[in-house]
Amino acid sequence: QVQLVEAGGGLVQPGGSLRLSCVASGFTFSSYVMRWYRQAPGKGREWVAAITSAGSTNYADSVKDRFTISRDNAKSTVYLQMNSLKPEDTAVYYCKSDGGPSWGQGTQVIVSS
What we know:
Number of strands: 10
Largest sheet: 6 strands, mixed
Helix content: under 10%
Mean pLDDT: 96
Low-confidence stretches: none
Structural class: mainly beta
């Protein structure tokens, strides 16, 4: 059974940083692309970043040069380092594997002064 558990969200001032983590279980983590998505209040879910099993990364234009996705295959964990946060980054952040349809519960990020 696939499980994805996100953590690390919180309240941060504009310009601040947060590091999200997502611990995966129930599948061969190292074999799959992992992605971060987010859903802002009243909006649809938006893709944020992706990382292949080999470590190649890709980002949405809205977060490029501010966010960094990484993974630790030994820990079955994917991370999202978020710097220079803006109020428009406020959302619930989710991770997902390309290996299946499961979503975690998400972690809330609020960027506000």
